[in-house]
Amino acid sequence: MILDNPALVLNIRMQDILDILESTLKERNWQHFDVANLKLSYLPYYIFNYDVLVEQKAGEQTYSQGFSGTMAMSAVDGKLEPLLTQIMEQQPVDYEKKVSHDLKYELNPPALKPDEAKQTAILKLAAKFGTGKDSIAVTGFRLVYWPVWKVFVTLPNKHIQRILVEGVSGYPLNIEEVPERELTWMEVTQETLEKLRTPKGWAELSGKLLNLTASAAKSAAGKKQKGFVSELVHWLLHTKLGRWTLLGIAVIILIILFF
User: Fold this and answer.
1) In 20, 138, 185, 254, which residue has its Cα 20 to 30 A from 78's Cα atom?
2) Distance of CA 125 to CAs 75, 82, 84, 172, 176, Å?
3) Do residues 172 and 217 share a domain?
4) Which candidate, 180, 153, 155, 154, places its Cα nearest to that of 164?
């Protein structure tokens, strides 16, 4: 099929998706999942250049600072996607108007016309940089299609989560939408013991323990004296921060006893 605008060449194939999903979901503490559905889409984006002038006042003086760069914006909903332009800047990318693979895909048409996209881009950048729209200039608008894998996974809690994986470098575009699973007490203990086996893990846990202890002391100091002991016990057993603190104390006691 020949496209009306160039598309970036697909580098991430179906066989790569499983490894990307495992890595992505592991960051959110999900070890098990099932792929419910998978499809390839070509999404339209406007790529453009921008110049921004930001003015700040300090007393009676006004200071100006300019910013220039390249930005990608969805041609469907006008969302800015700086990650996509980072990909284009950090690695060589190829374009094609005739799709070179034989995979089944869907082509999403743009919803924003070029004039609408320009005005939307100015407003979005004004909000991003905290300046007026008159301080922003956008040029060089061009429409491209970006291959994106739309993956639906079923998590152990029966929740179906959509994950968008761009098809050039394999970055997940909506990792922030994936809910983070809280580790169980056993998983936290195992993770801690694994880290204790390496000097790097020791250093990381020591720093974390110092921060947690300071936070616990600050939290305790701010509480009222009445019922302090019961509140402290509840905090240690029923909050994530409290359990980490309790685990750190237990680890220190074990080190003293056995080392």
Assistant:
1) 20
2) 15, 11, 16, 23, 21
3) no
4) 153
| Same domain (yes/no): 149, 223 | no
**Model pTM?**
0.70
Structure tokens at 2: 């020949």
> 102 and 59 share a domain?
yes
Q: Which domain holds residue 196?
A: 185-258
- Same domain, residue pair 32 and 14: yes
Q: Do 197 and 72 belong together in one domain? A: no
Last residue of a domain, one of 177, 197, 218: 177
Closest by CA position to 97, among listed 7, 230, 28: 7
Residue with tokens 């890595």: 23
Give yes or no for residue 259 having a pLDDT over 60: no
What's the residue count for the chain?
A: 259
Kindly state the helix (H) or strand (E) to which residue 161 belongs, with its residue range. strand 160-166
CA dihedral for 88, 94, 100, 106, sign (positive or negative):
positive
- The 10s digit of each residue's pLDDT in 64-91 is 788 899 999 999 999 999 999 999 999 8
Q: Count CB neighbours of 191 within 10 A.
A: 14
What's the number of domains the chain is made of?
Answer: 2
